[in-house]
Structure prediction request, 507 residues.
Amino acid sequence: MKNFLIGLIYTVVLAGCLAHFSGCEVPEEISESLYEIAAMLTPEVAATPTAAIGSVPVPSEDGTDAQSSGKQITGNSEGTPADPAADDSLGGNGSVTETTSTETQTISSQTTPKAKSTLTPTTASTPTSVPNNNTGSSSPSSSENRDIDNVSAVLTLIPPALNEYGREVMVNTELAAADGFYYANEEEATADFFRKCMRYESFTMLFKDETCMHTPEYYMTVYPELTHVEIDYEMSTRYRNGIYVNFKVRNELGATYKYAVTTGNTAFLKDTELAAVNEIERISEKLGLDKMNDIDVVVTVHDYIINNTKYDTAYRDISHTPYGLLTEHRAVCDGYANSFLIFMLLNGIDCKTVEGVAKGESHAWNQVKLEGKWYNVDVTWDDPITTDSAGTVVDNLKYTYLLITNEELYKTHVPISDYIEECNDERYHLLMYSKYMCETEDDLFAQLEAQRNNDEIVFVYRTGAFTKEQLVSAMRKKYDFRDTILVYNPTEVRDGYVQHIFINPLK
Prediction:
C-alpha cells in the first residue's frame, strides 16, 4: 500500500511538472497536500526540496561570481546610513521570512524581465527631466540600461521566501496594499520610491514583479538629490507573487526642498514646508530678484536672511526649518541653510546644503554655483551674536563666509557630506565688501549717510588706514557730535582689508 501511494504521488508530481511546462498551474491546496503526504511517508522527499527551473549559484563573498559583480549596489561606498527603524506605516519588516543562503537560490518562474517602456519615470508625479550634475544628462540612455538597470542581476541576490516544505510562498498583497507599500506597476512604484526617500533612511517596498523595479544606480541617475542608495539583501525576500525589497538611502541635506522646487512637484511636502516655499517665492518677487544678476541675488538673499533673523539659542525644533525662520524670524544653522537653498533654487541658481562640524558641533552651510564655479556660503556664521564694550548685544552682518573657497572654510569647518564640491575660486569674496569700502574721509561720510537708517554702520578699509580717533573726528566734524561712542574693533577680512562695525550714532 505504501509503495502504491508513493507511486501515485510521483505520478501526480510528474503531472504537475508537465502542467507547469505547458502553462498550467497545480492548485496550491493540492500541491501542499501532496507535500504533506510525502513528508509523512517519505521523509527524504521533504528533506530535499526540488529547486525551481532556473536556479542560479549564489555569488561568493568576494564577488567573483559573474552575476554578482554588483552585490553591494550603492552610489557611494563612503559613509553608513542611520540604523533603519521599522516603520509600521510603510509595512514594517515583520512579514519577511529570513532564509539562510544555501548552495543554490530559487528564483521566480519569470526570470526574464519585460523591457521597460522608458527609462524615465512616466508618471506625472515624477520628474521627466532633472538636472544631473554628475552625468550631464537627466536620465540614463538606452545603451546604459544593461549596466545600471539590470534588475535580473539584483534578483539573484534576493533570497526566496520558503515554507517548511521548501516551496515558495505567497504574500498577502491586499494587506500590503492597505499598508501602502505594494506596487502593481512601474509608474506608481517609482513615484512612491522617491516620496519615501524624502522622509526615511530605510523603507520597504513590495513589487508585483521585476518590471515594477529599478536598480539603485538607476534611481541615483534620475534623481541627483540621492547620494547613496543600496538594497539591504538580508531584509529583502522574493515571494511567488511579489518581490519585497528593503532600501537604504541617503540624500543631500535639504533634498526635499530641492526636489520640490526643481520639479514643481510639491504634493509630498508638509503644510509648513509648502508654506515656506510659497513665502520665499513671494519675498523673491518683493525683492526683485528676477531682475538681478546671480551675484547680486546671492548677496541680497544673504543680507535679507541675516537682517531678518536671529540665531535661536533655545534650539527649538521649528528653528531647524525655513518655516521657523520665516514665521518667527529665529533659526539655527539648517534653518538658515535650507532657507538660502530655496531662495537660490527658486531663482535658477544651482545650490546645495551640506553638513559638517564647526566648533565641535554639527553644522550646516551651503555651496552655490556661479558662472560654472562653486563657492561656499555660511549664512549662519555671517550672523554672529556679539556684545560691544557697553554690554549691548549686537547682531552683526558680515561677509566673512560668503563666496569663499574650501581652503578658507576648512580653517573653521570640517565637512562630513560626501557630495562636497571643489571650491577654489577667490574672485568674488572681496567684492562682497565693495559697497562698504572707504579709502578717504569723504568715503566715510558717504557710508554714514547711506547707512543712517541701519542699526549698525559698516566700514571696510585697508588695515591701518583709519584709527579710532580719525573715525570719531570725521564723524564729529561732519555731524557735530558731542558724544560719540565708538567701539574700535575692526576684524580682518582678507588681502589687507578690515571690517569695522559699530552701533549707529545717527539713530
